[in-house]
Amino acid sequence: MLLLISLLLASPMALAKATDEECPSVDLSDKFGPIRNQGSAGFCYSFAAADVLGEALDIRPPKMVSPMYLAAQYVSMSPPETQRAVHDILFEDDSDQSPKMGMLGPDPKSIANYDPRGKPLLGREGGYPNLIIAHALELPKICSETDVPSEGTEPSRNVDRDGFFLVRMGEMADGDHIQAYFNARNSNSQLPECLNDSPLKRMVGSIEELRPAIQDYAAGVFKDATAAKCTQTMPPNLSLKVHTLTITPTPKLIPNLPPGMGMGASPAQLKIIQDSVSTARKQNSLKISNILFKNQRPIAISYNACVLVACKDNENRQHASVVIAQQWNSQRKRCEVKIRNSWGTNCDGKRDDVDCVQGNWWVDREELANNSNSATWVDSK
To answer: Which of these ranges, 15-19, 133-137, 238-242, 287-291, has the smallest mean pLDDT?
Structure first.
């Protein structure tokens, strides 16, 4: 059945597409500053969150909320802070009580992602835009890009991707201890020397705990170091609510079909399947349009970046960006949305059916919606 659905999805002429009447124009581009570049850092979620949060707080160019600041707060969230943030999110899809956001890290509705000592085990490089936005709205201050720069933060030494954020935190917190860790990581004979360094000596009970201890230490100091740089106080009496809509993949939206409707299905049976696929895809597509047009709010969307760039078959590159505009493309006869990405102004690797100008990507709304996991926006309570 999944193979048959895949073949149908690959045949655009067979599927009913949105019409121009179902694609009202909206453009929120003037609310945002220049496209930013996350470099090799894996915190795309905080770049998306920063744009959505900045728009909700009416922070306009040239000022912009710092993604690095949000990421620093995110990786240090305690279990109580996470619980409060989850409680403050309005999950629009009540039929799914445990939505899987699709980003790296745990489901934000589950607090069982911490060890018994209560230390955060959230992914150091991946995360949820909705969780950090909800948390940031509770903080006393907000950092701008000028306060805590997020670009040009490539680490000063060669590390694997998983170590990037740890190194960046260490450089701002206490570079000597982080450097000692990376120098000794592959040499057990040198590890005891690291354990004798303060403050690590107070934090670890065994050599095996060295890495998480340094992570916790660096995250905590990095959080405090960035927060101390904030120059803007959070506006008082905020009346904002974080909304999240779970977007179910197309196959799960298709109703149960009679037995035998496989590759040998009759023309009549194929028509039933085709109509089901088409209806499901349009439902997802219209969800994006309704949020963008009716609310006039940007959307932080978690999705497969293969809708932007050429990928291998069945490849899934989880990513987060912001949807900021919608228009009807009369040449391609489809509804398109504009993605404000965090890869800088280049358009390297873009697909032939995607338009990209200075880091803004115009993609088929239906394809984006059906390769997404969730959409998050902020609105008045």
So the answer is: 15-19
Distances (CA, A) of 38 to 31, 211, 319, 320: 20, 25, 12, 12
| Mean pLDDT confidence for 305-319 | 91
Rounded-to-integer distance, Cα 154 and Cα 42, Å: 11
- Greater confidence (303 vs 159) lies with 303
The fold of 2-28+240-380 is Cathepsin B; Chain A (3.90.70)
- What confidence tens digit (pLDDT) does each residue in 247-277 have? 875 555 444 445 555 555 667 766 666 676 6
Residues 6+ apart with CB under 8 A from 106: 113, 121, 122, 123
The answer to whether 98 and 373 are in contact (CB under 8 A) is no
374 C-beta neighbours (distance < 10 Å), count? 25
DSSP code string of 188-224: GGGHHHHHTSTTHHHH-SSGGGHHHHHHHHHHHHHHH
For 332, the token pair is: 């391609």
Take residue 129 and report the two structure tokens written for it. Answer: 């835009």
Tell me which residue of 366, 357, 294 sits closest to 328, measured CA to CA: 366
- Which helix (DSSP H) or strand (DSSP E) does residue 97 occupy? none
Is-contact 276 321, C-beta < 8 A?
A: no
**Chain-centroid distance, C-alpha 150:** 16
Q: Higher-confidence residue: 13 or 250? A: 250
Percent of the chain whose predicted confidence (pLDDT) is above 90: 35
Strand pairing category for 232-233 and 141-142: antiparallel
Q: Given CA atoms 370, 317, 319, 345 in this order, what sign does their dihedral have? A: negative
Q: Residue 156: is its pLDDT beyond 50?
A: no
Question: What is the distance between the alpha carbons of residues 313 and 339, in angstroms, rounded to a whole number?
Answer: 23
DSSP structure class, residue 67: H
- Give the position of tokens 């499901």: 280
User: Is 80 exceeded by the pLDDT of residue 279?
Assistant: no
The domain segmentation of the chain, as residue ranges, is 2-28+240-380, 58-233
Q: Which residue has the tokens 């697909």?
A: 351
Cis upstream peptide for 62 (omega within 30°): yes
pLDDT at 118 over 60: no
